[in-house]
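tool_call: predict_structure(chain=1)
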Amino acid sequence: MSSTNQIISNISPHTHTHIFAVGYYTKPFKFQPFWIDHPEYNEVIRMAWNKHDEGNGMDILYCRMKSVKEELRKLNASKFSNISSRVAEKQIRDGNDKLIEDLDGIKEVAIQFYKNLFTEPSNNGCDLSRVENILDQNLKNDEVIMLGMPVTAQEIKEVILHMNLGKAPGPDGFTTKFYKGS
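tool_result:
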């Protein structure tokens, strides 16, 4: 747990006594994709979203997203607590679907998984010479102008719909699965 120190001075300008206030670090929000599969998920989102409808557009959006985060944290605490012990109860199987019960076998399955994950050569089907050619090109004047134009709601919607579900969350803690699934 991290803390923040702030110096708080007395009201009197003649007194230079300082008190160190200790603030508590709040764990950043991170959307968990498995929440979408919970039967109460849609209702939690709907109720959180409908709590706020006053103010300008950005204020409303900020309050709604904050409310969604709070309600999802409550859902997580009430329905997904003790997840570590639940995971420990699950069975581990090797590549041949054979049940692994001993610690050495589990270690070996984990090691093999990550060896395969990080040692397979992959360029995602991309021809690197094409990328090098693209990097040597300059934008035309009309392309520069197009890049400076405002982004439309339809463009945002299309981008979100075409994003992969497993992408990392943005600074707000919400993944693409949240936006597609809500």
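agent: Helices lie at 41-49, 57-79, 83-89, 103-119, 128-135, 141-147, 153-162, 176-181. Proceeding to next step.
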